[in-house]
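This follows on from our talk about sequence and fold. Please put the record directly below this note.
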Amino acid sequence: MLKKIDTVEQFEDLLKQEDKFFLLKHSLTCPISHAAYQEYEKYAGSDESIPAYFLAVQDARPLSNEVAEKFEIKHESPQALLIKNGEPVWNASHWKITNKSLTTATTENL
């Protein structure tokens, strides 16, 4: 199940509470982002072992910027990140966000 986050505070809480989680930066107006969101949703529905969160870039610009700055990963949208122990261990953007790539990221970063 996907959970939406909107604030830097929610993100900071996740970093403290979750050992591992996915985060998708999603644009509400981009067709590529929509396709990535569907793949992300498919992954989240098939594997609930890793929590899956997302932010809508248009609704949460400060949070999107914070993620880019904190992890020194250039902002892209769509962009998926796997966070483990408070650090990014994998990220992908655009057409590279697929159910298969998310599943592979999970198994490679246990």
About this structure: The longest strand covers residues 20-26. The CA atoms of residues 15 and 86 lie 5 Å apart.
